[in-house]
């Protein structure tokens, strides 16, 4: 009888049975007994090939296997005497696809080399773990908004105009229309959606021609952007906090094995679930930064270093709100208490990570927005449609964007955002 084909993740339900598993050889060690570390995408298992139990051809083949060879193994599932993890006592072994001179060996490789081989690097245990956490975060994001009465309103990627300033636009010729730009944010398209659906979100790729190399900036990244009618700055902070807690909870519930592979310290993540996030005005944050040794002056945007300094000294996620209007986007509602300030809020992640959410309340006055468009040197004709919502039933509204890769980097505690995307795009990185 054919042995049932089982995914490695299900092996623990088959202890004592003879099963077949297909996968790739991570590592093969040969002494008298031969060992194969096998990976099938669903998990990892050690296969033990003993001369006594294995068919002679299987034993022989096991001695010749190379890294990343694809194989089919038949064996009895048993529990590792010490760890209790399932392992396979091999009877039969069949080569499906050979592999010669696999470039990524267990020894150390430089980042440039790994990035060039990203299509292969994906197979490593660490990358597997990170991208599975990413998947869980993406799913948590959708479940959160779908379960909270938000309607999915996909935003276009080819757009005629800028949302987040004209200095980071990627352009492409667009037939007779002149230039199109890859979307920096779906926000301008979500705002009209609130008058049709009340609460909307989009979740998709966004693009910024970031010309500097940092640990936090990609040129292509995914962003989820909720937008709510009849909402204010406070609602942004409340919703963002609920979302982040929901995401962290899902990862802690569903990705223990992956977090263990990443050697992620769980205590700081668990504590996120139990604290109220901090809040500080920009003005307070600047004062705190000065105490911590930063040379920032009031009126300047935070640099990456400022965010790191601030968040190394803070034990929980922190909302910074009410920024100087001068360096924030044109669409932000001014603070009625101080018109130099905009009603924006950024959520900074702890453990030195910095901004993961940016958002705020949107200007609802037509005249104010018109003035801003002129002030920023934008072409009014490109925004006429956007201004319409201030003409027909304008209401206070607010929303934010959470960057998926920034969230993955923090939750996995990665030193650099490049490992958070399957195929990251950054300055100097377009291949593979
Ligand atoms: O703060 P940002 O620029 O805000 C917006 O784009 C708003 N229009 C969003 C909204 O209110 N609907 O970007 C939002 C988030 C940041 O907090 C960060 O997490 C991420 O997007 N982000 C980037 N992630 C990776 N690489 C980059 N270059 C990023 N730029 C922004
Ligand atoms: Mg921002």
TrEMBL record:
CDD domains: Asp_Lys_Asn_RS_N (cd04100), AsxRS_core (cd00776). It comes from the Bacteria. Residues 131-432 form the Aminoacyl-transfer RNA synthetases class-II family profile domain. Its EC number is 6.1.1.22. One of its GO terms (biological process) is asparaginyl-tRNA aminoacylation. GO terms for molecular function: asparagine-tRNA ligase activity; ATP binding; nucleic acid binding. InterPro entries: Aa-tRNA-synt_II (IPR004364), aa-tRNA-synth_II (IPR006195), aa-tRNA-synth_II/BPL/LPL (IPR045864), Asn-tRNA-ligase (IPR004522), Asp/Asn-tRNA-synth_IIb (IPR002312), NA-bd_OB-fold (IPR012340), NA-bd_OB_tRNA (IPR004365). Coiled coil: none annotated. Keywords: Aminoacyl-tRNA synthetase, ATP-binding, Ligase, Nucleotide-binding, Protein biosynthesis. The keyword Nucleotide-binding applies. Gene3D superfamilies: Bira Bifunctional Protein, Domain 2 (3.30.930.10), Nucleic acid-binding proteins (2.40.50.140). It holds the Pfam family tRNA_anti-codon. Belongs to the class-II aminoacyl-tRNA synthetase family. NCBIfam families: asnS, PRK03932.1. This is Asparagine--tRNA ligase. The gene is asnS.
């Amino acid at each position: 009888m054919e042995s049932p084909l089982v995914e490695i993740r299900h092996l623990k339900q088959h202890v004592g049975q003879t099963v077949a598993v297909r996968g790739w050889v991570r590592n093969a060690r040969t002494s008298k007994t031969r060992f194969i570390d096998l990976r099938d995408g669903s998990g990892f298992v050690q296969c033990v090939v003993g001369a006594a139990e294995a068919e002679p051809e299987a034993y022989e083949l096991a001695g010749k296997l190379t890294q990343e060879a694809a194989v089919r193994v038949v064996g009895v599932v048993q529990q590792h005497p010490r760890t209790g993890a399932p392992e396979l006592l091999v009877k039969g072994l069949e080569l499906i696809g050979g592999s010669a001179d696999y470039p990524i060996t267990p020894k150390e490789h430089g980042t440039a080399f790994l990035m060039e081989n990203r299509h292969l690097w994906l197979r490593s245990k660490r990358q597997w773990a990170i991208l599975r956490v990413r998947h869980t975060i993406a799913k948590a994001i959708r479940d959160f908004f779908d379960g909270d009465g938000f309607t999915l309103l996909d935003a276009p990627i080819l757009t005629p105009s800028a949302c987040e300033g004209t200095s980071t636009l990627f352009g492409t010729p667009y037939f007779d229309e002149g230039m199109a730009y890859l979307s920096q944010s779906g926000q301008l398209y979500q705002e009209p959606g609130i008058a049709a659906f009340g609460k909307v979100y989009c979740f998709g790729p966004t693009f910024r021609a970031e010309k500097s190399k940092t640990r936090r900036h990609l040129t292509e990244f995914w962003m989820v952007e909720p937008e709510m009618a009849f909402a204010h700055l406070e609602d942004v902070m409340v919703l963002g906090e609920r979302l982040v807690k929901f995401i962290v909870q899902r990862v802690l519930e569903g990705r223990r094995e992956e977090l263990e592979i990443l050697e992620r310290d769980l205590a700081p993540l668990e504590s996120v679930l139990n604290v109220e996030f901090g809040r500080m005005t920009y003005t307070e944050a600047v004062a705190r930064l000065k105490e911590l040794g930063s040379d920032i002056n009031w009126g300047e945007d935070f640099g990456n270093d400022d965010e790191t300094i601030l968040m190394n000294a803070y034990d929980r996620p922190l909302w910074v709100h009410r920024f100087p209007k001068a360096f924030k986007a044109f669409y932000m509602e001014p603070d009625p208490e101080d018109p130099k300030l905009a009603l924006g809020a950024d959520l900074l992640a702890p453990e030195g990570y910095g901004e993961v959410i940016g958002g705020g309340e949107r200007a609802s006055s037509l005249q104010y927005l018109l003035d801003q468009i002129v002030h920023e040197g934008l072409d009014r004709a490109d925004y006429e449609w956007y201004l319409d919502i201030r003409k027909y039933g304008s209401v206070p509204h607010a929303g934010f964007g959470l960057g998926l890769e920034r969230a993955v980097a923090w939750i996995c505690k990665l030193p650099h955002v490049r490992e958070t995307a399957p195929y990251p795009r950054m300055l100097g990185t377009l291949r593979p």
